[in-house]
Amino acid sequence: MTPGMLTIIEQLLKENRLSQTEGRKKILDLFLKADHALVHHDIEKECAGLIDRVSVYRTLQSFLKKGIIHLIPTTDNSIKYALTKEDLKDGKKHEHNVHFICRKCNKTICVDEIELPAAKLPKGYKEESYQVVINGVCSDCK
Fold first, then answer.
1. For burial by CB atoms within 10 Å, which of 6, 9, 20, 45 has the most?
2. Can you give the pLDDT at residue 2?
3. Is the residue at 142 inside a domain?
4. Beta-sheet strands, E only, within the chain
């Protein structure tokens, strides 16, 4: 971890009132360095020797609950996680996400450049979040 990255990680944990454990720092570091969504198995593999499988699971659940990361829907029902980006204009976390899944390499990325309009729901319904998944071929596989 680079010194600047450590500061971001420590700040994220502090803002979310989470203890500064080495396991949590390592998992956040993985998310901050990743250019695509991560799966539990890969996170577990990267943390081998530092934290066990159950601690990885609990950390991911804590991060989900706090909104630090979010789940990405997949057609095969596998679970992918991505870091939740904050809107620099108002400091709010994105609640509407667009994800791109490559049909060749299965890499999944968040597409922040696409802004989704507000969902128009029937009267009495309240939107909490929504996601759009775009399937295709990434630039690496083209």
1. 9
2. 57
3. no
4. 38-39, 69-72, 80-83, 96-102, 108-110, 130-136
Domain containing 44: what range? Answer: 3-136
At 90 the pLDDT is: 43
Residues of the chain with pLDDT under 70: 1-6, 86-96
Tokens of 26: 């390592």
Query: Does any domain span residue 40?
Result: yes
pLDDT of residue 9: 92
Q: Which long-range contacts (CB under 8 A, 24 or more apart) does 30-33 make?
A: 31/69, 31/81, 31/82, 31/83, 32/5, 32/8, 32/83, 33/5
> Which residues are CB-contacts of 47 (< 8 A; sequence separation ≥ 6)?
23, 26, 27, 30, 56
For 7-41, give one letter per residue: b (16+ CB within 10 A) or e: eebeebbeeeebeeeebbbbbbbbbeebebbbbee
In this predicted structure, what is the pLDDT of residue 110?
A: 85
Sequence letter at residue 19: S
- The reported pLDDT for the residue numbered 3 is 57
